[in-house]
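ingest -> validate -> predict -> emit
validate: passed (alphabet ok, no gaps, 474 aa)
predict: started
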Amino acid sequence: MDYLPIFADLKRRPCLVVGGNDIAWRKTRMLLKAGADVRVIAEALSPEFQYAVEQGQVTHIGTIFSPSDLDGIFLAIAATERKAVNALVYQSANQRQVLVNVVDDTQRCSFIVPSIVDRSPIIVAVSSSGQAPVLARLVRERLEALLPQHLGTMATLAGRFRSRLTEKVTSFAERRRFWEQAFAGRFASLVAKGDHAAAELELEALANGVESRGEVALIGAGPGDASLLTLRALQLMQQADVVLYDYLVSDEVMDLVRRDAELISVGKKAGFHSVPQEETNRLLVQYASQGKRVVRLKGGDPFVFGRGGEELEVLFDANIPFEVVPGITAAAGATAYAGIPLTHRDYAQTAMFVTGHIKPDGKQLEWHTLARGNQTLVIYMGLMNSLDIQLNLIRHGRAPDTPIAIIERGTQRSQKVFKGQLSELADLAQQAASPSLIVVGEVVNLSEKLHWFGKQEQQLHNTFDEQSTVVKLA
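emit:
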């Protein structure tokens, strides 16, 4: 270990910064956040420095560095463009046993500044010992994504409760188990929601031996690409005791679920056995009533043709706490990955989303509205009824040569895009597999220029004419 990682208390301690440029200001800003008494030596100051001096946040003590400027200083940072000045600061600081950092010169550093993830009072520092600072920054970015913003608030609330817990729970081992349960349970969820008063009550209840209540997180898993998950979705998936998931959730997303969570498939797929909605509702209530953290994982967004609202009504009636994490719906994700904009000033001023689960006569849909020109029509779950959709759209005024696309497994590595004309929809649908999305409108033609995900390998089919193609994206 080349460096000992420590956290220094700089409150009101004198710290010297030599240099007035932007880099020096970034270091100064960090010191100010830690409460240091910052003094700067520089011939010229950046606008940010000037403002800080005028506001009394920083003291400008001179323009030329002298070794005596280090007298009484706790630590120093040199960030000038002059190597000779930086070297003098380093040499003088070493002689006085003052910690010193010369920016971008590891050989002249008795301390280095790590990459920091700040969730005060939780602070995570990452360092490469000066060998690969860009790599350290990339690691920090990964941690930024994994550590929720409310982590600091959770630590602050826990700190307030420590003395009360010591009074109630005398055993160290019992207190440790208490905090493990609190940080992984409903207390953490309440803090994440911003309900701090309820979070503090939850700590009181746990300390009094009251069993923690279970809760349900209704999460949109997006269209398939795991990198499109929200941070909140990933955090809850990693904390879940039980996960009820749909057929539409990709394997790539499922791989991110907590390893020891109980996984229950409640998916629905046309033509296959599926779990009745009533049974799914019953399982949600059952597991949450047992005090478990339940994740209901749905493809796309749970409130877009996902029956999410129906499931939450059941939870409300059963007095089960819940939260909703939106996901990218297939109409937005799959079309974007296929290079098809939903709206465009020249072709579509409206975008409409409908479900393809329709009766053969199609009476429940306003086909005159769906068949209008200058709009994009996106149809979920429409493969099985593609012929009825084709006939009704043409019958109600949509031109038979209107461009269409069927996007199979949108956003995933196995994505395929079948393109043709409205008059060919039913035939193209026979080549596609679920889950697929149907897009009707002139914007489909823009995919020839705008497709970006993977590459167009080859024209795999030419069943009808030159406009009927399948594009596989790898």
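The longest helix spans residues 151-168.
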